[in-house]
Amino acid sequence: MSQPSATQKLDTSPEGVYRALLRCLKRTKGFGIVFVQCSPAKGTELIYRVPYDLSEKKIAVLELTEPIDNLYNIVANRDDRNDLNILFIQGLEKSLEPYIKPGYGGDGDYYILDTVPPILSHLNQRREIFRDRLSNICFVFILPLFAIKYIIRRAPDFFDWGSGVFELSNSNKSRIINGYLYRDNIVLGNLLQDKSRYEEAIKRYEVAIRLKPDSSWKAWNFLGVALLQLGRYEESIASFDKALKIKPDYQDAKTNRDIALKELN
Predict the structure, then answer these.
(1) Of residues 36 and 100, which shows the higher confidence score?
(2) Span 99-113, mean pLDDT?
(3) d(C-alpha 125, C-alpha 72), whole Å
(4) Closest to 39 measured CA to CA, from 197, 160, 147
């Protein structure tokens, strides 16, 4: 990240770094490159949290599950590319892992000098194309430490256009924040259900489940109720089953499951 002035006190806590990242994303108008160093779990939390704090921005996520050698085409072919303000990118490290082998000197001797992953050559060579043709998007790359170090060494031109590296670590506060977000999504989902906006409510319950997958019996139950209202009986029964798997004595889920079974006949 950029260095603070002599009169500023740098807050290096996870929450302080998160707030610095928010400020960076908020003031970025149009094209930008940001690197976030964190674990996959922390990255997922970040993706769910930022839209709440930057509700004025249009935000999307690109999750890469396989190695790639052309990021530009993937983004340029998105239907929403002209509407986006921020695009989170997860999984780019999968395109680097096959090239990290024992090599020459420094940092554990695993940055071989004569090998450059195609994706990094692509980023170096086409950074102007990203800027000129995807000028409305701020790209946020969520990466582990080894991938950040690799990009610094193998794609320095692309890295130099970035706004720095924001290092986010796991903490007890993160779990507390997840709890608040879980609760907020449940409350909002219930309000949407009360207005018969069931599809929107379902999305909120799904977010809540992702935030607390091991203790989300209430979210599964409410999701089942929304599905029941839409006549999606088999899906609703599956949701109630999920709630009961986590909390077998949850009476609301048992009652709602019985109602869904009767509707399914």
Answers:
(1) 36
(2) 51
(3) 11
(4) 147
Give the helix/strand (H/E) hosting 165.
strand 165-167
Cβ neighbours for 220, distance < 8 A, ≥ 6 positions apart: 205, 209, 239, 240, 242, 243, 246, 253
**Per-residue pLDDT tens for 151-179?**
887 888 898 898 889 988 755 455 555 56
- Residue 137 CA, distance from chain mean position: 16
Asked whether the beta carbons of 239 and 220 are under 8 A apart, the reply is: yes
pTM exceeding the 0.85 threshold for the entire prediction? no
Q: Which amino acid is at 9?
A: K
Helix axes 145-154, 118-125, angle to 10 degrees: 60
Q: Which tops the pLDDT comparison, 69 or 153?
A: 69
Q: Can you tell me the distance from the alpha carbon of 206 to that of 223, in angstroms, rounded to the nearest whole number? A: 8
